[in-house]
């Protein structure tokens, strides 16, 4: 299981992509997207997101 992006809260700032040690996150069309196969569920992105748009 990987993290989930709450699209209504995500502003596409990219903070999560900078914090992800496995490179599982990207920003496309102003919204973060997660590659579930690369996600290690470390939760770094969850804590880094300024809008609370990422959950595990």
TrEMBL record:
Q: Which Pfam families match?
A: Fer4_10
Q: What is this protein called?
A: 4Fe-4S dicluster domain-containing protein
Q: Does the keyword Amino-acid biosynthesis feature in the UniProt annotation? A: no
Q: Gene3D superfamilies, alphabetically?
A: 3.30.70.20
Q: Which domain of life is it from?
A: Bacteria
GO molecular function annotations of the record: iron-sulfur cluster binding; metal ion binding
Give every 4Fe-4S ferredoxin-type domain span. 1-30, 32-56
Q: Which UniProt keywords apply?
A: Iron, Iron-sulfur, Metal-binding
Coiled-coil parts of chain? none
* InterPro entries named in the record: 4Fe4S_Fe-S-bd, 4Fe4S_Fe_S_CS
């Amino acid at each position: 299981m990987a993290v989930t992006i709450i699209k209504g809260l995500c502003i596409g700032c990219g903070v999560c992509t900078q914090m992800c040690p496995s490179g599982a996150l990207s920003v496309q069309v102003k919204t973060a997207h997660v590659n579930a196969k690369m996600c290690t569920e470390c939760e770094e992105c969850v804590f880094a997101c300024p809008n609370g748009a990422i959950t595990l």
